[in-house]
Amino acid sequence: APSGTASNVVTYLARGDVALSVSVATVSTVLAPLITPPLTLLLAGEYLPVDAGAMVGDILKTVLLPVIAGVLVRLAAGRHVDRVLPAMPWLSSVAIAAIV
Q1: Cβ-count burial of 8 within 10 angstroms (0-12 exposed, 13-18 middle, 19+ buried)?
Q2: Which end of the chain is less congested by CB atoms within 10 angstroms, N or C?
Q3: 3-class SS letters over 13-30
Q4: Residue 17 has what pLDDT?
């Protein structure tokens, strides 16, 4: 349902509006637990119960924890991060492609 990190990386590589991409991804991720059940009913004709609490927990684990970890790494090793920063978008693209 919600867009993922890949769309933000591709937006960055295409020199698009990354702030807009992250904003849209954030809003769709936050709304997914509320919108998925009625949208499934509308499109598939069957209500799909979603455990909103579990979904929010998964969102926190997959979105919030990596962001916090990135901020901590940036604070702890800022000089080292600056050296590898130019390669990170391309490394992210390769990692996303490998996962897919």
Answers
A1: buried
A2: C
A3: HCCCCHHHHHHHHHHHHH
A4: 93
The domain of 91 spans 5-99
Q: Residue 28's pLDDT is what?
A: 82
pLDDT in tens, 32-84: 888 888 888 898 888 777 787 887 788 778 777 877 888 899 899 988 988 99
Q: What is the C-alpha separation between 75 and 68, in angstroms, rounded?
A: 11
Helices then strands, each counted (H, E), the chain:
6, 0
In total, how many domains does the chain have? 1
Note the residue count of the chain: 100
